[in-house]
Design goal:
Helix content is 33%, strand content 23%. It contains six helices and eight strands; from the N terminus they run αααβββββαβββαα. An eight-stranded mixed sheet has the order 1-8-4-5-6-7-3-2, with no helix packed on it. A hairpin with a 2-residue loop joins strand 6 and strand 7. Helix 2 crosses helix 5. The longest helix has 21 residues. The two termini are 18 Å apart.
Amino acid sequence: MENSTAFIKLKQRLNKLDSNDYDNIECWQFIEAFNKAQIEWCRRNLHGGNMYKEGDELSKKRIDDLQPLLRELSLTGIVTDTYFETDNFPVDTYLEFKTVTTDATDECCPEPRSMTVYLAEEANVSLIMRDPLKRPDFEWGETFCTMLNNTIRIYRGSNFNIVNPVLTYYQKPTLIQVVNCINPYTGLLSTQNVNCEFKDDLVEVMLDDTAAIIAGDIENSYQQQRGTQAAERNN
């Protein structure tokens, strides 16, 4: 959906019929509120904080809505005696963890074989490493990873090596921009239009959230409630 169309729809949601009460909304205010609505919608639906309690990939609809944000990143890093630690975490674009996949090799099996990787808590590393049923095992094809200080540690046994690790994650939604409008994050005029990357029916839901945010900013409780209810009902 074009930003110009989205802006018209937003004013339609806020204005009373046959009035122009809220036509003085600046374009940068629309940009900031819409980008905030994108982030809030993603966090709410990844977590399952909606009326259907559907989180990340719990239904075909959630899979379809969120798939534009899924990215894969081949991981690089250093190897220690007990783990492989990444050095290329996508700090600027990262929103939420999805999964880590990796292969492994050992002296008897030089051809890489796939491993099942579980995400574990950093506090439980010592317990997992002591447990013969949970610690990394090449024969069983299982290991675990943790996240610490914007790095990922994939744990390994002394008898095998981690190769070809890949991080799958949800990236932050692209921030929209309107040409010749002040970018609220840089204070500079935008030189290009950047439209929302989500499909149009989802943009309609986010516009209701955007209207609710702006209505709350101008203390219009009725429009705020209406926008929130419309966004959740059509989610």
